[in-house]
Amino acid sequence: MKLGDLRKLAIRQHSRIRFSLANGMECVVNEHGVAQVPALKGLPDFNLERELAGAQEFHCDALTSDPKIPIKTRALRREELAALTNASPTAEVHDHEEE
Fold this sequence. Notes:
- The chain is α+β, with helices and mostly antiparallel strands.
- It has helices spanning 3-13, 48-54, 78-86, 89-98; strands spanning 15-20, 26-29, 35-36, 57-62, 72-77.
- A five-stranded antiparallel sheet has the order 3-2-1-4-5.
- A hairpin with a 5-residue loop joins strand 1 (15-20) and strand 2 (26-29).
């Protein structure tokens, strides 16, 4: 699973995917596919692709267009998220509609 896979998944599912970095910070891939490290104050001394390779737990925040509806967060293991990134886009849209 690569960072590009997470970016595509976040866009398709209109969600944010978060995972912890080894240095205690958190990476957030937003609904536009942009990977950000909000706590980063300067030049990074790490590589997000390598950090992703070591991540085992992820949090997926399902976003809604209505601000009154709370964001649903789902914790996923690496294997579960990898299965979602490998699924076909049409299957993901169908699964998302059933939730």
